[in-house]
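My current task is to audit a protein record that another person submitted. Please read both lines and tell me whether the tokens look consistent with the sequence. Do not assume that whoever made the record got everything right. I have pasted the whole thing underneath without changing anything:

===
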Amino acid sequence: MTKHLLTITELSSSDIAGIFAIASRLKKKPFSKSSVLKNKVVGLIFEKPSNRTRVSFEAGIRHLGGTSVYLGSDDIKFGVREPVKDIARTLSRYVELMVLRTFRHEDVEEFADYSTVPVINGLSDLAHPCQALTDIFTIGEKLGSVRGKTLAYVGDGNNVLYSLMYCAAKMAMHVRIAMPARYSLPRGVISDAGVAAKRSGGSITVTTDPSEAVKGADVIYTDVWVSMGQEAERKVKMAAFKGFQVNRTLVEKSGRKSPLIMHCLPAHRGEEIAEEVLESPGSIVFDEAENRLHIAKAIMVKLVGDDR
């Protein structure tokens, strides 16, 4: 595994499996690695507000015996108060690990280039690797294995999909993506992920028809249509995504008695997902949310080199 975790593309299938194995052990014995971060400080830079990412990492750091320093949007202004490279070179002399939640992925990359300690991407405009690892880990828990299983994603071609697609592809899943053509991921990215899927025994299919995507799916996944920072596009995006809501009618078109329903949260109930689906027996949304903690801990254990 690389020194940093910036995107899923940096990870091999064995790296991913290794993180899952650690997370599984830590879920059973939460404090079994309570000395991993003993006498260590983890820096958290969050340009965006957060619920699951911040709390899962802060709780995980405590479980591993460490402490954290949180820097919010008013504390760190990349490229405004001082260059990103200067911030990285300074903070990495104070802490042993960094978690960044930023707007621009380029800032994460630059920070990692100049940091002398491991950097974890807690979310950027390009990628959300911690969420994707959590999602595939959760599917494996529920279905026993992810190999050969079909994951349908219905919604926006955003950072969550970018990471989810690559993670599923590397773990031999069949991914069907339904999104409006205007809001698709770049063709080159989909093609590249398709190569990874083919190599592992999986596949990636893209359509603009949600009904086609969910047919036979073991898992149906969605995310918000309007992400943080895109509020000005709300009216246009709401019109573009008409017909892409994950509701009872769409779920029934899967042909499955009870496919798993997933959402990375926060959910806009009544927009991308219907209330009755989010609260249905097939919904594993809050199991998925819980697993953010176990995956965060596993990533930190892996990066500090104590994954025995």
Observations:
- The longest helix spans residues 285-304.
- Residues 77 and 203 are 40 Å apart (CA to CA).
- Strands lie at 41-46, 67-71, 97-101, 119-123, 150-154, 174-178, 203-207, 219-222, 260-263.
- The first strand starts at residue 41 and ends at 46.
